[in-house]
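step=encode ok
step=design start
structure_in=
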């Protein structure tokens, strides 16, 4: 078996952009055009720079996914802020392993499945907008949980958490849908945080402070 595979079909473009970013990009480009037609050069230049910045924010590069058996991949680009065992958690029964990843506005915002599995349910919860790296953001911020069941009946939960700037969580995955490891399932506009809750018998492969990439960085191995 090949060591890597595509979870999503690669796109024929040099700079793939997430479709959720199109409204923001078109609005910024339209504003740039209006300012330019009105002769407001500095405003037009500022709006043009904002258009390029938004395109950068919503970039969605294709990724090849490691196929190694028992390997769980990162659901997001960013920095690991938690990697530990929990005796109790709000999502899975019993103890589990938690990895939390903080995304800045400079990271790719698209989220990917950590493992192959079937979506049992998704659970959206409105809330506040504290900075996503704070402990209280874990349960008090607006968030969306995606519950996956693997073929071996082990359960995984990936939680998209809004932050101080991020105010829009997008999840296009639906109950009953089967996701491949590394497959795109949603995004959070303008950075934030992803928490992934793994079976307790997973050996973590990351530590706090480490930089990871969605779909390519292995965060743990099933024993």
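sequence_out=
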């Amino acid at each position: 078996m090949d060591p890597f595979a595509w979870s999503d079909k690669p796109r024929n473009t040099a700079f793939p952009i997430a479709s959720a970013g199109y409204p923001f990009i078109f609005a910024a480009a339209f504003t740039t055009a209006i300012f330019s037609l009105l002769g407001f050069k500095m405003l037009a230049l500022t709006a043009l720079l904002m258009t390029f910045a938004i395109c950068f924010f919503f970039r969605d590069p294709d990724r090849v996914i490691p196929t190694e058996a028992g390997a769980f991949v990162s659901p997001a680009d960013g920095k690991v802020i938690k990697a530990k065992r929990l005796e109790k958690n709000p999502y899975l029964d019993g103890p589990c392993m938690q990895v939390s990843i903080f995304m800045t506005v400079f990271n790719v915002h698209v989220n990917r499945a950590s493992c192959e599995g079937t979506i049992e349910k998704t659970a959206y919860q409105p809330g506040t907008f504290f900075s996503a790296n704070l402990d209280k953001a874990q349960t008090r911020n607006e968030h969306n949980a995606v519950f996956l069941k693997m073929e071996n009946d082990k359960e995984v939960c990936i939680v998209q958490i809004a932050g101080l700037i991020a105010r829009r969580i997008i999840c296009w995955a639906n109950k009953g849908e089967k996701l491949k490891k590394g497959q795109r399932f949603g995004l959070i506009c303008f950075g934030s945080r992803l928490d992934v809750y793994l079976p307790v018998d997973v050996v973590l492969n990351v530590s706090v402070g480490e930089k990871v990439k969605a779909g390519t960085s292995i965060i743990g191995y099933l024993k």
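step=design ok
step=annotate ok -> The chain has a mean pLDDT of 91.
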